[in-house]
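Worked example 3 (structure in, sequence out).
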């Protein structure tokens, strides 16, 4: 029989850290987006304006996708921590789960 050792508190802390990082990335991403859109507006109708508009749109989409992935990872890491806590509690009681919690 194999054994797996997991510290649920460390997993939970990692989930919290991921949540904080996602917020920081979002703040920086919004600042870059404002700068790109500002460059587009300030450049008028020149090629630079079009390039800044295109870059701004791509940036916005990429950051939105990355943010969603980061949020999902943080959420799932938190769920994993809860699962590890449940497994530890059941092991202490000497019982086995009858159903798996779903979130």
């Amino acid at each position: 029989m194999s054994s797996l050792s997991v510290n649920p508190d460390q997993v939970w802390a990692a989930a919290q850290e991921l949540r904080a990082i996602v917020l920081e990335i979002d703040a920086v991403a919004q600042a870059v987006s404002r700068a790109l859109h500002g460059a587009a507006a300030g450049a008028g109708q020149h090629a630079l304006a079009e390039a800044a508009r295109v870059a701004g749109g791509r940036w916005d989409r990429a950051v939105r996708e990355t943010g969603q992935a980061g949020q999902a990872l943080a959420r799932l890491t938190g769920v994993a921590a809860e699962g590890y806590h449940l497994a530890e509690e059941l092991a202490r009681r000497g019982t086995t789960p009858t159903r798996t919690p779903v979130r």
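Notes: Residues 47-93 form the longest helix (47 residues). Helices lie at 8-42, 47-93.
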